[in-house]
Amino acid sequence: MQHYDLIIIGTGSGNSILDERFRGLKVAMIERGAFGGTCLNAGCIPTKMLVYTADVASTPAHSSRLGVDETLDGVRWAEIRDRIFADRIDLIAAGGRDYRINHEDNSHVDVYLGTARFTGERQVEITPNDGGAVTAISADQVVIAAGSRPSIPDIEGLADADYLTSDTVMRLEELPASMTILGSGFVAAEFAHVFSSLGVAVTLIARSAALLRAEDADISERFTELALGSFDEGGTQSGAGWDVRLNTSTRRVEQYDGGIRLHVDTPAGPGTIESEVLLVATGRTPNTDQLNVAAAGLETTESGLLAVDEYQRAVAGGDVVPGVWALGDICSPYQLKHVANHEQRVVQHNVINPEQLIASDHRFVPHAVFSAPQIASVGLTEAQALERGLDIDVARQDYGGIAYGWAMEDSTGFAKLIADRSTGLLVGAHIIGPQASALIQPLIQAMSFDQPVASLARGQYWIHPALPELIENALLQLDV
Ligand SMILES: Cc1cc2nc3c(=O)[nH]c(=O)nc-3n(C[C@H](O)[C@H](O)[C@H](O)COP(=O)(O)OP(=O)(O)OC[C@H]3O[C@@H](n4cnc5c(N)ncnc54)[C@H](O)[C@@H]3O)c2cc1C
Ligand SMILES: NC(=O)c1ccc[n+]([C@@H]2O[C@H](COP(=O)([O-])OP(=O)(O)OC[C@H]3O[C@@H](n4cnc5c(N)ncnc54)[C@H](O)[C@@H]3O)[C@@H](O)[C@H]2O)c1
């Protein structure tokens, strides 16, 4: 059995571990799919390239409020798709693979294109993609960066239906006339915006009474109102145009010639929903179940995440499993690329500095949902802060109350800040509206560096009359 200093399973965030400090190590890198993993090939990057395109395509729907009448003359799907994949992403993935396999920088690296599975402690067998013979290898250290995959609910008929997931929907040959999206989380919210803006009739199915239920309740409520199209104060940022079915559970899925039929239970009774395609967007499952982790003496949590400590070391039965590290979606409940990147830097440091371990910082993990409108969030929701018994003050500032918000005629967006009276520090920030993902950054910074609300608000200039005045005005309302 070939022995290595280091095995890395997965080339998403795992691909960034190797730098010049690893040149002295003999490394095996294993990848069963496209180089670069989910973010590059089927996640953050292509979705945001589509979201920006959708933002542009949807401006005519909103421009008349400014006295500008626009029309959308057409959408060239094949061109949009190929600009993203054929012209950019697929080239980067192929280039990354070629670099690891052929470049002299990587003469210390063996790349195995196949599926890894543990057979013992730090022992792995690889089934090659090309059908060749299974290879067994071992190493002193193993980094598990094998990510997650779309989870498919156990609904009668679904497994036999020709459904789409985030892995396949972006590469469709043609735009469908209609699409049902099962789920109401991140993926559903982003693709509903993308495909409805490109002219697809989108039906969104939510099991509960609100979309994006994990957000602060005010944010989830506003997003749901807008998606339903029932917000009537101008409704200019509305994602309306989606057919939103709340409190709806799916009993059975049936494929028919030309489409897919869902048999659903709704508050009004049983019914059916038909569309040309079905996108399943019901969460992601960590890939631990496919790795035979028990054979390596590794443990998983109830939700299937690989158990790790704050240094990203695998743990089992409360003890550290020597020489095994993990990062990203395989072990992280956040399932976000910036978290995977952070954990990758921690693992990278710790593998080569075993005497000076550094810990991951998960104190203030932000996220953004790139839908219509955008949402961004960091820290506690109001309900979580109250549950913790914090003495909080809450401020809410509308985009419509600041100069740039007037310029945009925004009547639906707002920022909600939550601060702890006992410390004068922010504990949560939530924004719904244009550029939310960019506007939230100074608040993440303040929380990460313990900057009090008062000095954040008045210890710096805020450019007038720019959009960040939304944040300045919200901060000034806080009585902490
Ligand atoms: C549609 C979508 C949009 C997203 N948008 C965002 C966003 O805007 N912002 C954000 O922060 N996050 C976003 N995410 C989440 C983000 O993509 C992930 O959190 C991130 O890519 C996880 O990185 P990772 O390195 O842990 O795993 P991955 O990038 O998934 O890498 C794991 C790699 O391991 C390989 N692998 C798995 N099992 C094996 C095996 N047994 N043998 C060999 N190889 C194996 C896989 O093929 C894969 O290449 C999005 C996700 C999706 C699905
Ligand atoms: N902008 C971003 O950062 C971004 C974008 C896309 C995805 N992601 C990451 O990918 C992960 C996966 O996204 P997602 O939207 O698939 O998951 P999610 O956890 O955000 O949402 C899952 C949705 O599916 C529903 N659901 C679960 N089981 C169901 C069932 N049996 N029947 C019907 N509905 C069901 C849930 O109620 C929820 O609405 C996210 O958690 C996120 O971390 C991030």
TrEMBL record:
Keywords: Disulfide bond, FAD, Flavoprotein, NAD, NADP, Nucleotide-binding, Oxidoreductase, Redox-active center. Residues 4-340 form the FAD/NAD(P)-binding domain. Binds 1 FAD per subunit. GO terms for molecular function: flavin adenine dinucleotide binding; mycothione reductase [NAD(P)H] activity; NAD(P)H dehydrogenase (quinone) activity. Its EC number is 1.8.1.15. It comes from the Bacteria. NAD(+) binds at G183, S184, G185, F186, V187, A188, A189, E190, G283. This is Mycothione reductase. Its cofactor is FAD. FAD binds at K48, D329. Gene3D superfamilies: 3.30.390.30, FAD/NAD(P)-binding domain. Pfam families: Pyr_redox_2, Pyr_redox_dim. PROSITE patterns: PYRIDINE_REDOX_1 (PS00076). The active site is at H464. Residues 365-474 form the Pyridine nucleotide-disulphide oxidoreductase dimerisation domain. Disulfide bonds join C39-C44. It comes from Zhihengliuella flava. Belongs to the class-I pyridine nucleotide-disulfide oxidoreductase family.
